């Protein structure tokens, strides 16, 4: 059996009810890379394929999705059987060395059991001058999340799971990458409504599985209270895009 940190086979049953592909994120990724019709692109930790499908429908390149979870991949395959979806752990990718032009991962890094080994593995499969993009959140961005207001215990949990940006940059250099740089991107503000409450109620954010039941119930009660009081909860999600070249 592959080693997993969160049970995504179980989570796959509700994942698409609480998460969607993110066109703005995919647009940001594609802005940073130049691809041709023959390029091979690998989406590591592709999950149910939401961003894989968005990206594949925007570019001519050949896009492959890779994930450790059979349950997540099954959902992805049901949506689009033309894309190759592969089950494998990110630190042991069944791909020959120097074959891929572009690798990206969205909201995956904090789940990986061995980040240095994974970065070495990605460097191995990339062609010379190939690009790699990690989409994650910095510790400051974790502080700014709406979940951090209602579930303050999740902040420490996630700062433990998410390496901060300077740490990731350092690991990339150590894995053999060059031209490492990062930029933050803030999405258009949205008013959080019933969908957000539903996501939280279904514990649709992985850190909500890692805090105590007491902390979770208290945060949920405070959130429901905010909605009952018709408080306007405006939120601009923000992410860090870390780019590296082999
Ligand atoms: C938060 S989901 C992100 C899914 C997708 N990238 C997205 O943005 O919707 C994290 C994904 O990483 C996958 N994952 C976790 N550990 C992994 C590993 N060691 N190797 C490959 N995939 C992994 C999980 O199965 C899950 O599908």
Describe this protein's structure.
The protein has 246 residues and is an alpha/beta fold. It has a domain at 8-138 and 161-190 and 237-245: Rossmann fold (3-Layer(aba) Sandwich). The chain has 11 helices and 9 strands. It has helices at 8-18, 23-31, 50-58, 70-79, 115-125, 139-144, 146-150, 153-161, 165-174, 194-201, 213-228, and strands spanning 40-44, 62-67, 84-87, 100-106, 126-136, 178-186, 190-191, 234-235, 238-245. The strands form 2 sheets. The protein has a 7-stranded mixed sheet, with helices on both faces. Strands 7-8 form a two-stranded antiparallel ribbon. Strand 2 (62-67), helix 4 (70-79) and strand 3 (84-87) form a beta-alpha-beta unit. The longest helix has 16 residues, at 213-228. The protein starts with 7 loop residues before the first helix and ends with a strand. The structure holds S-adenosylmethionine. S-adenosylmethionine (SAM) binds next to helix 3.
Secondary structure blueprint with pairings:
Elements: H1 8-18, H2 23-31, E1 40-44, H3 50-58, E2 62-67, H4 70-79, E3 84-87, E4 100-106, H5 115-125, E5 126-136, H6 139-144, H7 146-150, H8 153-161, H9 165-174, E6 178-186, E7 190-191, H10 194-201, H11 213-228, E8 234-235, E9 238-245
Parallel strand pairs: 1-2, 1-4, 2-3, 4-5
Antiparallel strand pairs: 5-9, 6-9, 7-8
Helix pairs in contact: 1-4
The structure holds S-adenosylmethionine.
The site of S-adenosylmethionine has 18 residues, from helix 3.
